[in-house]
Amino acid sequence: MRIAFVGDVHGCVLHALGAAVTMQARREIRLDAVIQVGDLGAYPSYDRFDDSTRRFARDHPAQGDFLRLLDPPPRFADGVRAALQHVPPVLFVSGNHEDHDWLAQLHDQAAAEAVPVDPLGAYRHVACGTVLEVAGQRVAFLGLIELPGKMDLDGTAYARLMATQPGGVDILVTHDGPYGMSLDRRGNTQGSPKLTRLIEHLRPRVHVSGHYHHPNGPRRYGPTTSYALAQLVEPKATRWAPEPVNPRQHLTPGSIGLLDTETGDFTYIDDPWLTEVGGDTLDLVDLIAATS
User: Fold this and answer.
1) Which of 94, 107, 163, 180 has the most other CB atoms within 10 Å of its CB?
2) d(C-alpha 284, C-alpha 68), whole Å
3) How far apart are CA 235 and CA 224, in angstroms?
4) How many beta carbons lie within 10 A of that of residue 257, not counting itself?
5) DSSP-assigned letters across all residues of 163-217
6) DSSP code at position 48
């Protein structure tokens, strides 16, 4: 079976669905699951955006697509429904840019560990500390980041996974990455010591994360191979790169990973078709018609 992993989406939910549909068609494969590693950009309204999300959304219209997903115009809804005829709904874990209170309310209302967050059922949030069977694999989910305050790793969820028997999960999906995975622009070490300990305890075959917006891996932690994914759609420009970086808003190489669960092979996607999925206003209906 094959599982696609998607990096930080930051609201560009049509790009993520378009990526899954196009990859499936161009590579002539069938995806059994799609998992997103957090920072989907799940907010119920614009006024609930955090400051960083609001700042980036001003210059990157597709980052508002999650809000449009909650009350989709007809053409938008047609595109999402068309995508779901080809690929399964996307499972995602919490990042540090979501409305965590709203997501918790959805879980409380449904009394479920995985809940749809949109009326079309395209995206399903998985609660921290949950272990689900996905595409024949035992997959553990732990969102947020190791940072004191409201974004910190959920202590109860972390303890639950640390109490899981070593080898009890096949895949670990987190938003933050393990400590020592890379350096930031100032030379500081990135990653979470707690996640390193969790990986070393659980000993899954594969670990996948996001958060740092660049591909990083494979890295070995005992029997575990760890991979980090890039941001799905890089900004047009940032304060570190004021010149245009991604003016056409197409998919970023290394932002999608493909796992063959039978062989254990994990591939960073760096295919020419990544440039076919882009734009400030992506039309899924047209994209799927062209891909088909």
Assistant:
1) 94
2) 13
3) 32
4) 24
5) TSPTTS-SEEEESS-BTTSEE-TTSPEESBHHHHHHHHHH--SEEEE-SSSS-EE
6) G
The residue written with tokens 């595109």 in the block is 79
**Of 266, 39, 4, which is closest to residue 175 (Cα–Cα)?**
39
| Residue 218: cis peptide before it, omega within 30 degrees of 0 | yes
Residues contacting 108, CB < 8 A, separation 6+: none
pTM over 0.85: yes
What integer pLDDT is reported at residue 244 of this predicted model? 76
Are the C-beta atoms of 22 and 288 separated by less than 8 Å?
A: no
pLDDT tens column, 164-195: 999 999 999 999 999 988 888 888 888 999 99
Q: Is 244 exposed, middle or buried (0-12, 13-18, 19+ CB in 10 A)?
A: exposed
How far lies 197's CA from each of 81, 102, 165, 203, 222, in Å? 41, 30, 14, 10, 11
* pLDDT tens-digit map of 122-159: 999 999 999 999 999 999 999 999 998 878 999 999 99
Give residues with Cβ within 8 angstroms of 74, minimum separation 6: none
3-class secondary-structure state, position 34: strand
Convert the pLDDT of each residue in 226-253 to its tens digit.
Answer: 999 999 999 998 777 767 789 999 999 9
